[in-house]
Amino acid sequence: MLSKLIDEDKIQKARKLVNRSERIVITTHISPDGDAIGSSLGLYHFLKGLGKEVTVIVPNRFPSFLSWLNESDHIVVMEELQSIAVRLIKEAELIFCLDYNGLNRINGMKPLLEQSQAHKVMIDHHPFPESFCDVTISHPEVSSTSELVFRFICRVGAFGSVTKVMAEAIYTGMMTDTGNFSYNSNDPEIYAIIKELVQLGIDKDAIYRSVYNTYSEDRMRLMGYTLSEKMVVFHEYHTAVISLTAAEQEHYHHKIGDSEGFVNIPLQIDNVDCSIFAREDKDKVKLSFRSQGSFPVNKLAAEFNGGGHLNAAGGESYATMEETLQKLESLIRRRSEFETNVE
Ligand code: 5GP
Ligand code: MN
């Protein structure tokens, strides 16, 4: 038996909103990851099973290692299908906000959600949620939004309607947000949930292979180049920085998702507990931060208009790559000022 976790009051409010809505839109954050897509598709299949007209809308494309997920081809990518996304959001009676805690995480969708008259329900696990939803189900202590979606479905009394495809989506999000259960994964209830999902018929080993062992040769060579040529280790500060310019990505035919996971690799170095990846995009440098143990990388990310969790955070820089790397180095040298735990 799982602990209750989510407030009964919030469950009741969200359930009522679902019951009285026919047209439902599920939204998730920019550069959707396994948890964003897994939680969205898990909830999508559930709501479809209730006979709702439901669409998942994402701000931009998701990586191809998630495209095996059932009905991922029905996801509306706003960047590519702007007018359809605008119409669906305008017509929606209820909007779910999954795996993000603030409107600046959805880029071009932000004004649409602000203008929308639809009721909104947030299900998320990032600290400090903004209050733009009618119901805010926010649990930073839970390692994935997908787990929260599973808990939500159970709490509305619908465990019996969880199908294998829903279970696959939910497992994918739980797996990817914990690095295949290698961090944020000490809660025994995670494994109680996995037991249920496996009993529903998921092939967890095949899901692992579909997500982690289907990379392109280009990606593998880009990873080799990044680690051998573009990694700087600040041993004294237990921190490693890797970076890629736009030209370097182009040279290796970089596609969305190709550098996903690179930031975790330097944590495998003995005595490195903080890793930072700076990747040059069209108009900015995207920064990813990871740590293990108590070092709060969301504090570092806050120095770059960003945030996130204690051990995983992101931000962006509008300076050049060179200036960004210099700023990073000076922050790393001031590491001790960031040591206190914020979660
Ligand atoms: P990633 O490095 O995978 O892009 O992001 C790691 C974590 O930080 C994710 O949980 C993500 O939601 C959060 N994150 C990434 N970028 C940003 C950002 O620009 N702002 C905030 N607030 N969080 C971010
Ligand atoms: Mn997540």
Q: Explain this structure to me?
A:
The protein has 343 residues and is an alpha/beta fold. It has 2 domains: 205 residues, inorganic pyrophosphatase (n-terminal core), CATH 3.90.1640.10; 122 residues, Diaminopimelate Epimerase, Chain A, domain 1, CATH 3.10.310.30. It contains 12 helices and 12 strands. The chain has a 6-stranded parallel sheet, with helices on both faces. Helix 2 runs antiparallel to helix 6, helix 5 runs antiparallel to helix 6 and helix 6 packs antiparallel against helix 7. The longest helix is centred in the first third of the chain and has 16 residues. The chain is globular and about 55 Å long. The two termini are 27 Å apart. The model has no long low-confidence stretch (mean pLDDT 96). The structure holds guanosine-5'-monophosphate (5GP) and manganese (II) ion (MN). Manganese (II) ion binds next to loops.
What labels describe this entry?
globular, inorganic pyrophosphatase (n-terminal core), 2 domains, single chain, 343 residues, binds guanosine-5'-monophosphate, alpha/beta, 6-stranded mixed beta sheet, binds manganese (II) ion, 37% helix, Diaminopimelate Epimerase, Chain A, domain 1
User: What's the average pLDDT?
Assistant: 96
Small molecules in complex: guanosine-5'-monophosphate, manganese (II) ion
Q: What is the name of the CATH class of the largest domain?
A: Alpha Beta
Task: Please summarize the sheet with the most strands.
Answer: 6 strands, parallel
Order of helices and strands: HEHEEHEHEEHHHHHEEHEEHEEH
Give the spatial strand order of the biggest sheet: 3-2-1-4-5-6
Strand-residue fraction? 15-25%
User: What class, by secondary structure content?
Assistant: alpha/beta
Globally, the shape reads: globular
Helix content: 25-40%
The Cα radius of gyration reads 20 Å
Summed up, the helix count is 12
What is the assigned CATH homologous superfamily of the largest domain?
inorganic pyrophosphatase (n-terminal core)
Distance between the termini: 27 Å
Provide the number of structural domains. Answer: 2
Strands, total number? 12
CATH architecture of the largest domain: Alpha-Beta Complex
CATH fold-type name of the largest domain: inorganic pyrophosphatase (n-terminal core)
Give unreliable regions as ranges.
none
